[in-house]
Amino acid sequence: MKEYKLNFKLFLTIIALFSIIVVGIVLMITKNYNLVDYLILIRDYGYVTIPLTFIWFYFVKWGWRCWFWKWTASFIKFPPDIRGRWEGNLVRYGEKETHKLVFEIKQTLSKLQVYSYSATGHSESILDSIASDKMEDDFYLTFLWQGEAGIKPGNEKDSRIFNGYTILKLIERDNEKILSGNYFTNRKPNQTMGTIEVKWVGFNLKKQL
Predict the structure, then answer these.
(1) pLDDT digits (tens, 9 = 90+) for 38-68
(2) From 119's CA, which of 57, 85, 95, 170 has a CA 20 to 30 Å away?
(3) DSSP string covering 103-124, please?
(4) 185 close to 162: Cβ distance less than 8 angstroms
(5) How far apart are alpha carbons 167 and 142 in whole angstroms?
């Protein structure tokens, strides 16, 4: 399961091609334009669109997180860079035991994907976003996810596949990055919820606990 949304890059490409066709038809109807003139029009159009395409690709892949552009983040609204592996703990309400938890996050300017790994299961985000408070001083990672875990001992009716929602505040201090917050699930027969705190450890993704 994944988020269903507009393919923005394809949509812009279709608009660009459609505009070339429309402009060419209009010029051929209203003026004495032939095929050669139309090909020249396409070439000249490429002088503008090709550089813009490379600029867009650069910012989507790298530019949004480059230190050089940090001064533009407040008004362009580049998201904080949370890519990488985060390790920490989960504590369920009503339990004293602490559970080891890992998040691995893939991120570009236009995409975000969160994976989690624990001793008993794993999950993958379905809808994910980075939010902020009204003053845009604090940032939050929020995501709806689908998880799969083993059946709890003594509870054969326990659901193995379930959904949950997590809200984590991004805390940056003393050269550390921490995600801290809460989660809840619709796991049956007993709903689970609790607190999470994980610390960024690096960009290397292991795809496991």
Answers:
(1) 777 777 777 777 888 888 888 888 888 888 8
(2) 170
(3) EEEEE-SS-EEEEEEESSEEEE
(4) yes
(5) 5
Question: Residue 129 — very low, low, confident or very high, per pLDDT cuts 50/70/90?
Answer: very high
Count of CB atoms within 10 A of residue 158's CB?
16
Question: For residues 33 and 27, is the Cβ–Cβ distance under 8 A?
Answer: yes
What is the pTM (predicted TM-score) of this model? 0.80
184 contacts 164 by C-beta, under 8 angstroms: yes
Q: Are residues 96 and 187 in the same domain?
A: yes
Residue 154 region by backbone torsions, left for phi larger than 0, else alpha for psi between -120 and 50, else beta: left
Would you state the pLDDT for residue 2? 60
> Domain with 132 in it: what CATH number?
2.40.128
Q: Is the pLDDT of residue 31 over 80?
A: no
Domain enclosing residue 31, as ranges: 8-61
Check whether residue 96 and residue 173 sit in a common domain: yes
Task: Tell me whether residue 38 is exposed, middle or buried, using C-beta atoms within 10 angstroms of its C-beta: 0 to 12, 13 to 18, 19 or more.
Answer: middle
